[in-house]
Design a protein that fits this description.
The complex is a heterodimer of chains A (331) and B (185).
Chain A lengths: L2 H18 L3 E2 L5 E2 L12 E4 L3 E5 L4 H11 L3 E9 L12 E10 L3 H20 L6 E4 L2 E4 L6 E3 H9 L3 H4 L2 H10 L10 H13 L9 E4 L21 E6 L2 E8 L4 H17 L9 H6 L6 E7 H9 L12 H4 L3
Parallel strand pairs in A: 1-5, 9-10
Antiparallel strand pairs in A: 2-4, 3-4, 5-6, 6-13, 7-8, 10-11, 11-12, 12-13
Helix pairs in contact in A: 1-3, 1-10, 4-7, 6-7
Chain B lengths: L11 E4 L2 E11 L7 E8 L5 E7 L5 E2 L3 E11 L2 E5 L6 E5 H4 L11 E7 L2 E6 L3 E9 L12 E6 L4 E5 L7 E5 L5 E4 L1
Antiparallel strand pairs in B: 1-2, 1-5, 2-3, 3-4, 6-7, 6-9, 7-8, 9-10, 11-12, 11-14, 12-13, 14-15
The chains are: A alpha+beta (331), B mainly beta (185).
């Protein structure tokens, strides 16, 4: 099957799944004034009305939450393009990519984990039309996608694979000490987030079992993004990611609904952006205001291009995109 | 000292006190994270391969390499053999170290080889090579579409797209990084 047809089929199946589950499909703007200021994503900037800054949305998240908060729709989903302006092209990212996001109210991140299991099994069953339907072959590995998928907390993963106590590691000075002992280069400017990810990428992610999907949950508060902190332990958040065949496919959380805390995080992100020389803009005040009427909600983003990679056994994202950005622009 | 911006396939670095050659490099930016470079390193002394992910901007120490001229002899499976024309000493480089340049090595031609303590590390690939076209289809008469190309084979066996006016026996200049046609020699 050509990758173009596979893409069409998979997107059709995603839509069928969410309509069957009674989600409402919505649209949000791609051209925005105040994108998500996540400190490590650079945005694409353009101009509107001659000299007002406008940005291509790095995700539809803020507007989807505004819909949840104001339109009283309890389950929404969207499939759209999102844009992130990278330093370099790599085999897992295209600067312009297709994203799937869904949100359900009166729900938390464990409900989303179940949605992910159901969605992947639904697509697999309809896409391959073969038995046994619970196996996907990706890059020479057979993956058993039967629910429930194995789940491991970030703290357990750091303990099991890197022999690090994450409670202890959460302090920057302590983290520097631990990383240095392990032989990593630690400098004055080295950040906690860099050490966390360097250890994660070197010692943890490569050791994840590849014969089943994996749900990694309860991220440290430093990586909360827009997730809610855990009631019982505020050093961690109700955030998870899921992996299949080594591909990180989705990132979801119990949404932060506290407007005060949200404003604080957006401002902190903007401060971090300023420090690292990223584009600065005003934060989305309308989004913060909308949280006042937002019910308990859980939401997730899934990379559709990577889903297509998984189901078509493609090694790089460029193989499943008809016109990859790297072919249009030369560095 | 240099940083991760110099990382590329074939580069030789000092890592944990030992010389290593970079055999693969990919850029990674984990979701909601800063930038990293995932590399596959080969220890020049032991031959051991392993993966290491560097923080973007991390300091990198380049190994002090010496270049020597070698003549290309032949290929055996994924190893390419070269000889020092003065001492007749032979060395070999693996296919993944040569990268794209494997398509352009020509028997008995001379190449600059990087060495460290007399061990061959990698090949200093010229940006351009000139090779002779050994097979070319005749272009269809009257085909005047701008930008039209055809496939030809050069003397090393490599095939590429060239403009229609290129004939068998012509020498053409190829960019060794992109593998694309540059001009007629």
């Amino acid at each position: 099957m050509s990758k173009i047809i596979a893409r069409e089929n998979i997107i059709d199946l995603i839509r069928t799944f969410f309509k069957k589950e009674e989600f409402t499909e919505v649209e949000t703007p791609l051209l925005v004034a105040s994108p998500d200021p996540a400190p490590y994503n650079e945005v694409f900037e353009t101009r509107i009305f001659k000299n007002t800054s406008a940005y291509l949305a790095p995700s539809p998240e803020f507007f989807l939450k505004k819909i949840i908060a104001r339109e009283k729709i309890d389950k929404v989903f969207q499939i759209c393009k999102s844009f992130r302006n990278p330093e370099e092209i790599d085999p897992l990212h295209n600067p312009e990519f297709t994203i799937l996001e869904w949100y359900r109210t009166e729900a938390n991140y464990t409900d989303l984990m179940k949605d992910c299991e159901k969605l992947i099994n639904f697509i697999s069953k309809k896409f391959f039309l073969q038995y046994p339907i619970s196996n996907i072959q990706y890059q020479k590995k057979i993956i058993d996608i039967t629910s429930p998928w194995p789940r491991i907390s970030v703290k357990e993963a750091f303990g099991k694979y890197a022999n690090i106590d994450l409670d202890e590691f959460s302090d920057l000075e302590k983290a520097k000490e631990i990383a240095q002992k392990k032989g990593y280069l630690v400098e004055k400017k080295t950040s906690w987030e860099q050490l966390y990810h360097q250890i994660f990428l070197n010692e943890i992610e490569p050791k994840f079992p590849k014969d089943k999907p994996l749900i990694l949950f309860d991220y440290p508060a430093q990586l909360a993004a827009l997730a809610k902190l855990k009631e019982k332990d505020k050093r961690y958040t109700e955030r998870f990611e899921f992996y299949i065949g080594g591909l990180e496919l989705g990132n979801g959380y119990s949404e932060l609904t506290d407007p005060v805390e949200q404003e604080k995080r957006l401002k902190a992100d903007l401060k971090e952006r300023k420090k690292t020389g990223k584009k600065i803009f005003d934060f989305d005040r309308d989004f913060v205001k909308s949280l006042k009427t937002m019910p308990e909600t859980a939401g997730i983003a899934v990379g559709v291009d990577r889903l297509i990679m998984l189901f078509t056994d493609a090694k790089t994202i460029q193989e499943v995109i008809t016109f990859p950005t790297g072919k249009i622009f030369k560095k | 000292m240099a940083d991760t911006s110099i990382l590329k396939k074939g580069l030789c670095i000092i890592f944990k006190g030992e010389p290593h050659i970079v055999v693969d490099k990919t850029f990674v930016s984990p979701g909601k994270g800063s930038a990293f470079f995932r590399t596959r390193l080969k220890n020049i002394k032991s031959g051991a391969l392993f993966d290491f992910t560097f923080k973007s901007g991390e300091k990198i120490e380049e190994a002090p390499l010496v270049t020597q001229e070698f003549q290309y002899l032949y290929r055996q499976e994924n190893e390419y053999f070269f000889m020092n024309p003065r001492t007749y000493e032979q060395i070999s480089l693996e296919e993944d170290i040569l990268g794209n340049f494997k398509n352009f090595v020509k028997e008995s031609d001379l190449y600059q080889i990087y060495t460290l303590e007399d061990k061959a590390v990698s090949l200093r690939a010229p940006q351009k090579v000139t090779l002779k076209v050994v097979e070319a289809e005749n272009s269809v008469k009257g085909n005047t579409v701008t930008g039209a190309t055809k496939t030809v084979k050069v003397e090393t066996g490599y095939e590429l797209q060239v403009p229609l006016f290129i004939k068998e026996g012509d020498s053409i200049v190829i960019n060794t990084e992109t593998g694309e046609y540059t001009n007629r020699a």
